[in-house]
Write a structure and sequence with these properties.
By secondary structure, this protein is mainly beta. It has 6 helices and 31 strands. The protein is rod-shaped. The protein starts with a helix and ends with a strand.
């Protein structure tokens, strides 16, 4: 009995398979699969404002009408016409660089489902000619804001890449006057290495909206060394001698000190900048003279850099020397190296001596400033003419030699 049931189950399976085969055969005979070309389906352009709103104009070169090949049961496709299909191209997906938009097609006939047909587009895209489109390559500038920590300054920055290519609507690109990498170095005391987002500005410094532009990159790599800074004096020397009868009355320069920057060790090794005398040759000058375009940078060690003004002018004022006579009273003459065995006396009367100097210095002298000394060592009994030893006073010098009678007695 059990064996009979098993044989009966097998017959049932066989019957099902035969029924399916018979159904497929009948369908293919009565309603076979077929293919059909349908042309003239209009393409609905969706979201056109995606392009026009960004300042582009465009022309449809190809794809305003589309053709499809449909495959399916004959009974389903026989009556299909172009009006039974809807084709669309969504411009919100367009890339202004690509010049095409994908087309999607679906059958809208009520008694046909999505699974009934296989639809193949003959031309799957709308081809566009996007006008008013421009590409422009611009250099990237760097704007460092803020102030590093006390005693520090920024060195020469480095950016990579140094330029950016911008593609988009001509009107939008025309607005862009500068591409800037901005970074705040406030309080920095260590070298900086960071990624910086680019900003785009118009001529008025207003930021330009770049959402509709294609950028080769939107950020750059920025490296900024943070250096130690120090103020050091600048020392000027000169060579030569002014013309006889003249003297330098004043020397001053536009730069007396500079600020240098570098590593801590490099800055510590520099305590002054000493310029060579050959830069200022005063040989035989007799008038005020200016020495221009003295580039201090040339005389700074390569291990540091100058971060202050570094082109100096040196002004040398020259005036004629004048002479004036002054009276030395005997009581203002000191005798040196006297012998206790002798008595010494100076000649009576006054002595006129001449001093030379600039007018301003000569005018400061008075008779009461005059002092002299005589060396009486080795003098025997009698009257002797002894050389006066006079000292220069201030910036004025003694002109000539002067003697005074000295009488020696027992």
């Amino acid at each position: 009995m059990k064996e009979k049931k098993q044989n009966n189950f097998g017959l049932k399976i066989l019957s099902v398979v035969f029924a399916v085969f018979l159904w497929v055969t009948i369908i293919n005979v009565i309603d076979p699969a077929d293919s059909k070309l349908i042309t003239g389906i209009p393409v609905d352009m969706l979201n056109r404002e995606t392009l026009t709103g960004l300042g582009y104009t465009y022309e449809v070169l190809e794809g305003s009408m589309v053709s499809v090949t449909v495959t399916g049961p004959t009974s389903k496709i026989d009556e299909l016409t172009s009006s039974d299909f809807y084709a669309s191209a969504d411009f919100s997906t367009v890339n202004p660089l690509s010049d095409f938009v994908d087309i999607e097609v679906r059958c809208t006939k009520a008694n046909i489902s999505k699974d009934d047909l296989d639809i193949v587009l003959r031309n799957p895209t709308v081809r566009l000619n996007i006008e008013n489109r421009e590409s422009k390559t611009m250099d990237v500038s760097v704007n460092l804001t803020g102030t590093p920590a006390e005693g520090f300054t920024t060195g020469n920055y480095d950016i990579s890449p140094m330029s950016v290519k911008i593609t988009g609507a001509e009107s939008t690109i025309a607005e862009i006057a500068s591409v800037v990498a901005e970074y705040d170095v406030e309080g920095a005391s260590m070298d900086i290495s960071d990624t910086v987002t680019l900003r785009f500005y118009d001529e008025n410094g207003e930021q330009v909206n770049t959402s509709g532009l294609i950028l080769s990159r939107s950020e750059v790599r920025l490296k900024v060394p943070i250096l130690v800074k120090k103020q050091v004096p600048v020392n000027y020397a000169y060579t030569g001698t002014v013309k006889d009868g003249y003297k330098i009355s004043e020397i001053h320069s536009t730069i007396n000190s500079i600020i240098i920057a570098g590593t801590a060790d490099a800055v510590a090794a520099v305590n002054s900048i000493d310029l060579p005398a050959e830069l200022i040759d005063i040989g035989d000058i007799s008038t005020d003279t200016t020495y221009s375009n003295i580039r201090i940078t040339h005389y700074v060690p390569a291990t540091v850099k100058i971060i202050s003004d570094a082109v100096a002018e040196v002004f040398i004022k020259v005036e004629p020397l004048i002479q004036k006579s002054f009276v030395i009273l005997p009581e203002n003459v000191t005798m040196e190296n006297m012998n206790d065995m002798f008595r010494y006396s100076l000649g009576k009367g006054t002595i006129l001596v001449s001093y030379e100097g600039l007018q301003a210095d000569i005018e400061k002298l008075a008779n009461t400033d005059m002092r002299a000394a005589v060396d009486v060592s080795g003098l025997g009994v009698g009257t002797h003419m002894v050389l006066l030893r006079l000292e220069n006073i201030g910036n004025c010098t003694v002109e000539g030699e002067y003697t005074i009678p000295v009488t020696v007695s027992r």
